[in-house]
Specification:
single chain; mainly alpha; 8 helices; 2 strands; 61% helix
Length: 202
């Protein structure tokens, strides 16, 4: 993720790349448009990659576990959707009530914050809340999360990115929230790739 940020910074500094991304040559500003470009040019292709990997994925694959206590692919897909909605729609709006955050996530995704089953206990298995869900169900969740993010970011003006929110007793900025969405998505997508590889070999 740090590498991707460096790439985007260099794109803004380069005359040709700056023209392609409609930015000022030599000016590097961590504003809303900077992060929107990351969401568009990084997360959208990653989301497409997820869709390409799971168009016909079986329920057995989505609920397969390497061993008890290890996340399933279905859990990780649901988790990606839940976390994105939580950080943008709940933390981003300064909502500190777990109950209110839970209702917001439920209203957008159709599942609650804890329904992704994470973190999983050492002997944990695929959660009942996700049992029987198809690849289409998970991709629909991810699509709803991304649509909600796009709607919310329309009101995130550049001057607001330095604003902070209190989450679990710590302070984070709205700029950090956007960064976290990108690195969190990439991190778990890597996990999904590993599980796919292991499933094919075992």
């Amino acid at each position: 993720v740090a590498f991707l940020l460096v790439v985007f910074i260099q794109m803004d500094r380069d005359r040709v790349m700056s023209a392609l991304t409609d930015t000022t040559v030599g000016a590097v500003t961590f504003d809303r448009d900077f992060f929107l470009k990351i969401l568009l040019y990084v997360l959208v292709p990653l989301l497409g990659l997820v869709g390409a990997n799971f168009p016909e994925a079986s329920r057995e694959l989505l609920e397969w576990q390497l061993r008890p206590g290890v996340n399933t692919i279905g859990m990780l897909l649901a988790h990606l959707a839940v976390v994105e909605v939580y950080w943008v729609e709940c933390a981003g709006r300064g909502i500190e009530s777990d109950e209110e955050a839970d209702e917001i996530v439920l209203g957008i995704l159709g599942i609650r914050v804890d329904d992704d089953g994470m973190p999983l206990a050492e002997d944990g298995v695929h959660p009942r809340s996700l049992a029987g869900r198809t690849a289409a169900d998970y991709l629909e969740m991810l699509g709803k999360a991304r649509s909600a993010t796009h709607r919310a970011l329309r009101s995130w003006e550049d001057r607001r990115l330095a604003e902070t929110r209190t989450v679990d007793g710590g302070e984070v900025s709205l700029a950090w929230v956007l960064y976290h969405i990108v690195e969190h998505f990439a991190y778990h997508l890597g996990q999904i790739g590993q599980l796919l590889s292991l499933h094919r070999r075992l």
